[in-house]
User: Fold these one by one.
Assistant:
Number 1:
Amino acid sequence: MKSFITAAALLAATVSADLCQEGVVDTNGNFYCQKVNAITYTGVGHDGSYNKITSMDPTTGACSSAPYGYSGSLSPLDEEVSIHLRGPLLLKQFAVYMPHNSSTSPPPASKARRHVHDKRHGHAHAHMHRERNAKEEKRALGDVVSALIDGKWQTWANNYNGGAAAAAAPAAETGAPAAAPAGPAAAIEPVNKAPNPAPAPSQAPGANRVGGGSSSSSSSASGEKSDPADATGNWARQAYYNSEAAIAEGLVFLNHKGGDGSGTWDMTYGNSLSYASKDGTAGASSPQILADTTLASSTEIVIMTDQPCTDGSCGYTRPDTVAHHGFDGPSKAFFFEFGMPDDGQGGASEYDAVNMPAIWMLNAQIPLTLQYGDAECSCWTSGCGEFDVFEVLAAGDTRCKSTLHGNVAGGDSDYFERPTSGTIKAALLLFDDNIHIKILDDSTEFGPNMGATFLTEMAADTMEDSVEKLVSLFKLGG
């Protein structure tokens, strides 16, 4: 993935003590400092705008867009997001958790799309970027909440005080090490001016640092971006996948094979999204459960909710594409059990995604319009948001980097070890304007509820640079 940094981010950069003082390796412009077990990005949310796609003409190739303003905790990644996997990768389990009273699909929201991400997923990663500016707004008792109940949107006053579950039956807490709680909602309104970030050179390390199935069934319950103001309640599982048990609840597996069974293809935009075949290599006419197998090198799978976009509920989407809602809200957690085996292949260039597995998150507008293609037909270029969770940047490399892309951008130079043998468990937690990534104990269970204590401790344990704990902290702006 090509990394771009705004000039403002460079000017705001400060160098402070961090794990890079223990040593740095520069590999083809990618800086690698220390192997860690956890990375936290602080100050993610900010005020800004991006260009939301409003039309696509397959005859002329012309795309229209309109400025769209955002603000608040974790914005714009508080909007609906999609999860992407690139092989060689074996996904054994995947789970999505949100605070009770949260949901993966709000009433008619808007969607757009993303950047020309090179076919390898795009970036070349000249690491280190950053910036930010955050605002948040808590949803209090008595506020109006919308929820999808028995297929109908209903509205009531929020009487949830952060205690027991509101929309799901109580269950024992699950988890093992530690993690964090719920966060606020943000008001997003149109603005009259869109930013025009310019590409900038990479920063030196240390900058911006502080220290065989069929369709699936839904498991989500309520509607609006409404989270408890505190962290006393468990987080409910909204979606779950288990490869060995052939279970897929609350989610669908898509790919870029439009025209093969589902979706569409044309000479202008190429393949749209489609339902993915069981091995991920082809399209399908209906949702399939991903098989218990390793995704082939370069094969990409997109995970979204099982709730289709209807009547403009996702905003503008490419005509005739397969369109589903993404995972919504300013507080959400994604749990993975996965492996990234080395298939022994070598890429012809840095843009050839052979033997370079990755897990990343996009603003869901990106795949719903045009993930690969003309930058004018994507909100990625104007900053609608991407976060790379585990990305291998060179064929056969054993290091996984993380990076935030958008109008505020940054990439930590510490890295995770690629799980080439067997599998590991890991969590991606978006909460309280921070993004936490942590390798979990193998005994961690992805049960129906995730204990708030587990999540709170996970956040607390990853908020300080630590050589002893193998924790890296990356500060975005300040």
Number 2:
Amino acid sequence: MPERLAEMLLDLWTPLIILWITLPPCIYTAPMNQSPVLMSGFPLELNRLSEEQRILNRSKRGWVWNQMFVLEEFSGPEPILVGRLHTDLDPGSKKIKYILSGDGAGTIFQINDITGDIHAIKRLDREEKAEYTLTAQAVDWETNKPLEPPSEFIIKVQDINDNAPEFLNGPYHATVPEMSILGTSVTNVTATDADDPVYGNSAKLVYSILEGQPYFSIEPETAIIKTALPNMDREAKEEYLVVIQAKDMGGHSGGLSGTTTLTVTLTDVNDNPPKFAQSLYHFSVPEDVVLGTAIGRVKANDQDIGENAQSSYDIIDGDGTALFEITSDAQAQDGIIRLRKPLDFETKRSYTLKVEAANVHTDPRFSSRGPFKDTATVKIVVEDADEPPVFSSPTYLLEVHENAALNSVIGQVTARDPDITSSPIRFSIDRHTDLERQFNVNADDGKITLATPLDRELTVWHNITIIATEIRNHSQISRVPVAIKVLDVNDNAPEFASEYEAFLCENGKPGQVIQTVSATDKDEPKNGHYFLYSLLPEMVNNPNFTIKKNEVIVVLFVTLRRHKNEPLIIKDDEDVRENIIRYDDEGGGEEDTEAFDIATLQNPDGINGFLPRKDIKPDLQFMPRQGLAPVPSGVDVDEFINVRLHEADNDPTAPPYDSIQIYGYEGRGSVAGSLSSLESTTSDSDQNFDYLSDWGPRFKRLGELYSVGESDKET
């Protein structure tokens, strides 16, 4: 019955009709002391109850209890009667007053304190508040004393279908891959209804598609949208607009509805191969273009987008595969043809290439659609350009003897104009590479001549640059390096490496090597130097020296005693000793000296007078010592001592006793110098002792004494 009333209210607009909606009364029999009766929404027929029933009710004196209902959104001209309160204590004398308290009492609901009628004075909305809890009480009119305990009851707002479904998250957007099969799920939508989902069908929704068929379908209850057609092609249509409706009352007539939109976008798949816009491309390029320059672009169109449209380009055939290359431009999706090697118009004037474009990312699901690639032909025409002269060789190597005559031709460079016009060439030398102007070049034929004398010992290599310039266009020039090697001629005499000073012992043996000499030559022989050594003409007749093996000087000598002819060996019995005294010691005497037996150093060959005499005395130079004096390179002290030791061991005239002899070499100098530079009276040497005057007064006197001794011997 409430559902019928709700449907009737939608069609009735007369505000004068007041409907009391009641439910069957629930009678509760109270104790005898509880006489008030609550009448809630009863029709007036309750007043016509039989007397018997009234007696029963009064005797039990219980409450007549019921819930009250009121329709929402009722907007009549008069307040709506919701129900009536009544108690058996009220005989109609108007001595009882009814009081109402609780939710909305006095603001939404108003009670007639005499009759107990409850009215709704405002328009109610169930979606805002579905029920109200109130308390009723009967009090004495005069004293306001409660005549009975308060009683609580509920007024429920009865729902009507006054809210349409709403899509709170709309409008919607969804994607689905193109070429999807039938029934592929796209998305789902949801609508809400503010009406009571429990009472009636006011909130029962049914979904349908108003626009978007026949491409998509929707499940009426779950609102899942699916594809209704297979193999939808994005390249044909990319976007679809679907209008979706949600209707309450289970979709029946009279129900309220709401709509939303769904935009479905088909995503791309690689279902299309690349295709060149034209099968033949023509390009032209100057022959002097820089390597790496872009000559032209070719493009294969692909109806797909994104990575599905990416194509790689390659040169798969043609007569210019070595000269050209093609690269892919990922942004523009085209192929760029670039020059890889230099072109020559005079050699070849056109090239034909076959290029291919192929998809980078392929989808095996669509492999049956054919190969995802395409080919095109590219013709490239080479244009003539004014090129600089070209030398016959990238470098030149020339050779010339250092004694070559001036203006003699060293060599020749050649160059030509590679253009068809074949302009004459003029040659010149870059003087920055020939600052001394040692060479010239013939401007017409490129012959290089010698301008100044050459010297290989000063400069072996000369590096110059020859310039070739077109006479008709001076801006076209070329350069070539020319390396000139100066060849050697024998124009330098050998030179000794240094000046030599040789020393030898007076008892040197014939054939003994006393000095090795070497020489150098500034010239450059092919197989190394070989020198022929010889003595000077004035020394050729000297029997004491000769050259051996073209390498060393050998001395042959005879010891010469100029001062006396007596033998060195003393045959008498007197004891002859030689003392070495350190003259740099102040004081001392014989006990501070070192003595040794001179007889142990005697040569037995001298006893018989067979010692060879020397005709030339060695030229010895004596210099004052300054600090540490190095030993002359020609003196071998160790050899000298060993020779004397050997002679002493084999001397039959040696004393008949053994003695230990100490041979010490004073290798360390002193400030005062050493007397080792003083020759004894038996050394057979003529000396000048004037330099001792520079060592101080003591040595000056010593020099005078020795000089006197020498003078006496001469006399």
Number 3:
Amino acid sequence: MAQAPSRPDAGNASVPGSTLGLTALTATAPISWGTTYLVTTEFLPPGYPIVSTVIRALPAGLILLAVTRNLPRGQWLWRSLLLGTLNIGAFNALLFVAAYRLPGGVAATLVAVQPLFVAGLAYLLLSEEPTRWRVGWGLVGVVGVGLIVLRGQISFDLVGVLAGIAAAGVMASGIVLTKRWGRPAGAGAATIAGWQLTLGGLVLVPLALSFEGLPPALDHRAIGGYAWLSVVGALLSYVAWFHGIGRLPVVAMSFLALLSPAVATILGWLFLDESLTPWQGLGFVLALTTIAAAQLTPDAIRNLVRIPTTTKGA
């Protein structure tokens, strides 16, 4: 019997204090993903992007399956396979292709167009009409990320550019479809994350073995790097991410992804002796302003005004 998807918890999102806490929790996901650039370049063996994605996703998914003891059934089997491919398998593989063929800043800037893709798909699939406010701030966010990471380096490798844009597109599709389908009854964020991480990792196993083979013997640094990416960058982060998708407006939530390149740049400055310029400082201001502005809609402002009245009358 097919399981009906549960409805998003709109009640939580309607209370500003609750929304702020939920947004902060969801933001921990792209913040942790921002560490991927540093961990990959400094700790992992080079030349194994697909293998690294499998090691990152599959163990985390299997652990969540063991903890939740819940497997997808009926229509949720193919839905989870599709969502896992989009959110985990295809996105990470395309992101690594872009990162290998383009300067990291160019790749990050291309992926930063994701909120614009989400706005368009949300209109088509969720009937969420894109507002000029969020579309405008989406463009500002792309400019901000570009100022942070480009540093005057521009590459026109066609395959890399297409891979970066495709990475933004597939993750935007995964976010919107996850929101559209909701969750089956009795399945929480940990269950959904377990399904998608496992199936997304399994999809890439044949590709990893065919094109890259097994990585060399791992030293302690590589083991530590993979452990960080799997536990923090996959298991914990995707549970928080899918928890947010179920309760926050999908377009506003997609802007949180702009935190990843910002975190990557800060870590490069702190640990790799990379310099920060005034233009990058301006980029940080634009990116952070964009993330905040995307959460402040007229409805949210009206809710803030209503809270004292509601509390007084209770």
